[in-house]
């Protein structure tokens, strides 16, 4: 299903400063964990939280190798692997660079500091991308963070790290889990999905795409990609990783009970789970137009390797997730500028569009289906949700009705007809 297994997982040459507790002669060159070199004094072989001698079930004798052993359990699930690596990498780099301590010597008090660090990683020049953008791991501009983490991302980071510490304790590498001592707040009920585009704002995006210039070959290529990307995300409700890893050969058709063709798109989703999603005649027609614009036959063959989103150069090379992200952000950003050019009254709508991302399109697809009366079980299966509880978060019609009824019927009704001062 995926265009390729996955690219080189660890590569960077970024040097950071170190804590005063580390001798100047032992400056740590901070790289992603697979290529990171840590001085012996900080590598954890003598960590104060190490398990009993001879009790470890790992061959790892230092923290880096122990973290790699934990990550190896997720090597076959690219998205999960990258998320887990990111959080383990941040903690390990923070421990070594900021505290001058090995991971296996971290205490409860240290992790309280780290919890605060996630709210606002400082010094920013060391930890945060100067532009807030994502750069390849081999780029000198790469940083562990692109900005302060949202509350949800902070919670997710701690959940992942708690799982890592628990595994290292179970493996006998560590004596105890200091993360387990952190105060756990009661889990709040999930709110309605809010990061989605209303029907009216989505209509603005479509109008913007349709008015894109198509005079030159470059303009036609940009228009075709923009139209196909927005169509694919919206009609199929796909995750960015699913679009990036998908191929044209994942489309297939079969004969329905009514004797008519049914088109389906096979998708490799979260947790490496496969699902098939109905592909409407509208989507197939858009695919035809996109393929013809790119010099391909109108319909794909069963085993065709052409990516779902065709690069402007190198036809059979999958775009990365970040490239897909940037392409969608470009559409929304340009649409926002176009809206602002229409007048000051469009400023708020333009601001909303600038915040939108590819994942907003997945939420938009689910929300519009739910509010349009599509059965929640159908939406659940199309989006690859495990539970209907997740899918129900896309329902907004009840909220809209509640808002209308409240503002229409619950009023102050000040009598403003009397002249002032009388």
Automatic annotation (TrEMBL):
GO biological process, one term: chromosome segregation
Assigned keywords, A-Z: Cell cycle, Cell division, Chromosome partition, Cytoplasm, DNA integration, DNA recombination, DNA-binding
Residue intervals of the Core-binding (CB) domain: 61-169
GO molecular function terms listed in the Swiss-Prot or TrEMBL record: DNA binding
Gene3D superfamilies the record matches: 1.10.150.130, Intergrase catalytic core (1.10.443.10)
InterPro entries: CB (IPR044068), DNA_brk_join_enz (IPR011010), Integrase-like_cat_sf (IPR013762), Integrase_catalytic (IPR002104), Integrase_recombinase_N (IPR010998), Tyrosine_recombinase_XerCD (IPR050090)
Chief location bin: cytoplasm
Domain called Tyr recombinase: residue spans: 192-408
An annotated GO cellular component: cytoplasm
Cellular localisation: Cytoplasm
UniProt protein name: Integrase family protein
């Amino acid at each position: 299903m995926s265009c390729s297994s996955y690219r080189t997982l660890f590569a960077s040459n970024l040097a950071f400063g170190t804590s005063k507790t580390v001798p100047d002669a032992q400056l740590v060159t901070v790289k992603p964990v697979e290529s990171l070199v840590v001085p012996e004094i900080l590598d954890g072989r003598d960590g104060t939280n190490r398990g009993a001698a001879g009790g470890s079930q790992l061959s790892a004798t230092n923290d880096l190798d122990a973290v790699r052993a934990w990550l190896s359990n997720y090597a076959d699930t690219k998205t999960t692997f990258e998320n887990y690596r990111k959080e383990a990498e941040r903690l390990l780099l923070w421990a070594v660079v900021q505290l001058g301590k090995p991971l296996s010597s971290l205490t409860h008090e240290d992790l309280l500091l780290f919890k605060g660090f996630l709210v606002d990683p400082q010094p920013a020049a060391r930890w945060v991308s100067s532009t807030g953008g994502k750069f390849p791991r081999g780029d000198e501009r790469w940083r562990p963070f692109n900005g302060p983490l949202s509350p949800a991302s902070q919670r997710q980071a701690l959940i992942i790290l708690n799982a890592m510490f628990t595994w290292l304790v179970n493996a006998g590498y560590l004596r105890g889990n200091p993360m387990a001592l952190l105060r756990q707040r009661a889990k709040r009920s999930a709110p309605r999905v809010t990061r989605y585009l209303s029907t009216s704002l989505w209509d603005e995006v479509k109008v913007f795409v349709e008015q894109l210039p198509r005079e030159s070959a470059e303009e036609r290529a940009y228009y075709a990609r923009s139209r196909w990307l927005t169509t694919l995300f919206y009609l199929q409700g796909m995750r960015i990783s699913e679009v990036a890893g998908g191929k044209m050969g994942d489309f297939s058709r079969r004969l329905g009970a009514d004797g008519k063709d049914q088109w389906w798109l096979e998708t490799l989703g979260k947790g490496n789970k496969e699902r098939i999603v109905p592909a409407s005649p509208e989507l197939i027609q858009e695919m035809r137009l996109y393929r013809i614009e790119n010099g391909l036959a109108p319909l794909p063959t069963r085993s065709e390797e052409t990516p779902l989103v065709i690069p402007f150069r190198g036809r059979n090379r999958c775009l990365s997730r970040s490239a897909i992200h940037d392409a969608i952000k470009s559409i929304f950003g340009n649409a926002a500028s176009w809206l602002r050019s229409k007048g000051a009254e469009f400023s708020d709508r333009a601001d909303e569009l600038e915040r939108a991302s590819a994942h907003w399109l997945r939420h938009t697809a689910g929300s519009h289906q739910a509010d349009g009366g599509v059965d929640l079980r159908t939406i659940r299966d199309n989006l690859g949700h495990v539970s209907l509880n997740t899918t129900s978060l896309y329902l907004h019609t009840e909220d809209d009705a509640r808002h209308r009824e409240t503002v229409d019927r619950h009023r102050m009704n000040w009598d403003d007809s009397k002249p002032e001062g009388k």
